[in-house]
Design a protein that fits this description.
5 helices, seven-stranded antiparallel β-sheet, mainly beta, about 200 residues, globular
Length: about 200
C-alpha cells in the first residue's frame, strides 16, 4: 500500500497514521486552574524531548482544559499511567465541563506538587512536576496553523514509588507502563521487557 496524505485515500475503514506511530507513552496531565479547580486528563501525544535540561511535551488537539490551565498558571504535572490504573485513566478522559474534578470523577487521590502548584495522581508509580517553557502551535506546509498546541515543560521535580525500584533502576515489569497503539488499542509496556546493548 502507498498513498499520499493530501488525498488520504488509504481505502481503510480507519486512518492508520496514529497506529503507525506506536506505541505512544501517555502523559496523565494534572493542572490547577486560576479558579482553584483541578483537572486531570490523559494525552497520548506526549513524550520526553530533552534530557539536558529535562523537558517533556504534551500536545492538545483543540483548546482543552489542560492547555488553558498550563497557559494561565505556567505549571503542570505528568503522572505515569500503569496497567493497574488504566481503567481510572480512561475515566479521567471523559469530556466534562471546565471545573469538574477528574481526580474525583475517577476515584483518584490528588496530591499537590512540592515544587509546582499543580496536582498529580497519588496512586501513580511516578510523576513529574513541570514548569512551562514554551507553548507552540505547529503549522503545515501551507503555513496554516494546526488545531493543536504543544506545551513544553521543564521537569523540576520527580516522584518515584520505591516499590518499582530494583537494583538501582526502575523495573518496567513492575511499573507496567501503558502505551497507545492507535484506534482504541493499548499495550502493556511491562509484559515483554528485554534489554539490548548498542553496538
Amino acid at each position: 500500500m502507498f498513498y499520499e496524505t493530501a488525498a488520504n485515500a488509504h481505502g481503510l475503514r480507519h486512518d492508520p497514521f496514529k497506529a503507525i506511530v506506536a506505541p505512544r507513552p501517555i502523559g496523565w496531565i494534572g493542572t490547577k486552574g486560576n479558579d482553584g479547580s483541578f483537572n486531570l486528563s490523559p494525552y497520548s501525544f506526549f513524550n520526553v524531548v530533552s534530557d539536558n535540561p529535562k523537558i517533556v511535551m504534551f500536545s492538545s488537539s483543540g483548546r482543552k482544559h489542560s492547555l488553558r490551565n498550563a497557559e494561565e498558571t505556567g505549571v503542570f504535572t505528568a503522572s505515569l499511567v500503569s496497567r493497574d490504573l488504566v481503567e481510572k485513566t480512561n475515566l479521567s478522559s471523559r469530556a466534562v465541563d471546565y471545573g469538574v474534578d477528574e481526580f474525583q470523577l475517577a476515584g483518584l487521590t490528588s496530591k499537590m506538587g512540592r515544587v509546582v502548584e499543580a496536582p498529580f495522581v497519588g496512586e501513580a508509580h511516578a510523576a513529574l512536576e513541570c514548569r512551562v517553557t514554551q507553548i507552540l502551535q505547529p503549522v503545515g506546509l501551507d503555513g496554516e496553523a494546526a488545531d493543536s498546541w504543544m506545551v513544553f515543560g521543564q521537569v523540576v521535580a520527580i516522584h518515584i514509588d520505591d516499590s518499582i525500584i530494583r537494583d538501582g533502576r526502575l523495573d518496567m515489569g513492575l511499573a507496567r507502563p501503558i502505551g497507545r497503539m492507535g484506534y482504541m488499542d493499548y499495550c502493556d509496556g511491562g509484559s515483554d521487557v528485554f534489554e539490548l546493548q548498542r553496538p
